[in-house]
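Submission sheet (multi-component)
Chains listed below:
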Amino acid sequence: MKKDVPSEILNVLSTLEEKGFAAYLVGGCVRDLIRGKTPKDWDVTTDATPEEIQSVFPDSFYENDFGTVGVKTESEDPTLKVVEITPYRVESTYSNARHPDEVTFSKNLEDDLKRRDFTMNAIAYSPKNDLVVDPYGGEEAIRLKRIIAVGNAQERFSEDALRMLRAIRLAAELNFAIESETAAAIAASAPLITKVSAERVRDELSRIVASPTPMQAVFLAQRLGLLTHIIPELEEGINCEQNQAHSYDVFEHLLRSLQHAADKEYSFHVRLSALLHDVGKPASRRYDDEKKDYTFYGHEVIGARMTKKILTRLKFSTETIDVVERLVRWHMFFSDPDQITLSAVRRMIRNVGVDHIQELLELRTCDRIGTGRPKEQPFRFRKYKSMVDEALRDPISVGMLKIDGTHVIEILGSGPGPKVGWILHALLEEVLDDPTRNTHEYLSSRAETLAQLPPEELQTLGEQGRSRREEEDTKEVEALRKKHHVT
Ligand code: ATP
Ligand code: MG
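Outcome: structure written.
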């Protein structure tokens, strides 16, 4: 199966071989070569110890517990800049479903392949001899697009429970199916996933969300019993019937929205918020006797709070948490162009952030498609979008005002301090109402007037935008809690 292997990699392999060591490509890169795809990274395995590898490659680094040595190459290609070389390893006992108690090196290639997760990943390849070492029938599994555990699936999942989620992630990325015995073993071992660190779960979940087929993958994670240990909040949406505008229950609606985000190749933030945007619906559902239908008032407020909790628990970055929470919070924005004013649109943009308004519009599209409505962008929504474009030419954030902090400090004759921010935000509120006020002259004279106000009054003015929103949120949540008889 002569495969295309870059010269940088061939050099690393032959350098090891010249010193008398065995050297093979192994893992994902061999799998990808067999599939006819270009590997994202290249892993080399060898019978040399980490110290021996380092002596063969002086320009290398070794700073982990797994024996992996990184070798720097001259390559411009980022996937080739560092080649990772790992000695053959055997993994001994596992006592925590997370990682082996100790890492032991071996002189045997078969030992190393045996510890790998799936047969498709347990193939070694030597380009020089065009030799494939495939003791578990991995090539066949790749041909059949099957994910099959190496050895006893249940034992392998009890050694490292993350492998269960890796199976689903790899299925989503490669468009493979999980073989039935391996799938049954996941179903039987699913609760073990709770032993895995949130960071490792987050990384696999992120790749599922970023894959071309996230809907199928999350459905599968649910069916095999993993989802309930990762985002149980999503399962509340199963059989949570919606109002007449919807064809699907909340869970399926969320997955269809997510899938549309993937089909459109929208950003990770849009995808994640598509998955979570209605997570607050089950908790806010009421039956309205007059309407003879369900209502979900405030679900975006509850949903935003739940989103923050979920993503914090899964150790997502503060930036991701902040953006996704905001997108969920504002996904119900009012978009009837015949009834809305430009200043309301400007406030909308201010709420979600200039940098995220595009994503909010994309999320709305996903929401619509996920509902089962045929048209993606009806006329009125296009009209709303053009209003957004128009509003974006107006000042929407403090940074876009024709006055800056330095000048406000001069006017105040003191600072920096909270007063400066209050004045700038109070000025922004005025400009959001009427953008023609955004002149240096007008804002300077208003700043002078504001500077005379007692601090408490100034603070109220400066925080009006934010506090108005927070007050509304709090009221809404309180009302919902009362209905639920919880405090
Ligand atoms: P990709 O790079 O596309 O994510 P990959 O299969 O290369 O896919 P890596 O996480 O880079 O995945 O892992 C490299 C190889 O290490 C895998 O192909 C597999 O052989 C092995 N491996 C990784 N994680 C595990 C694990 N948890 N248990 C057993 N083997 C693993
Ligand atoms: Mg890899």
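Remark: The radius of gyration is 28 Å.
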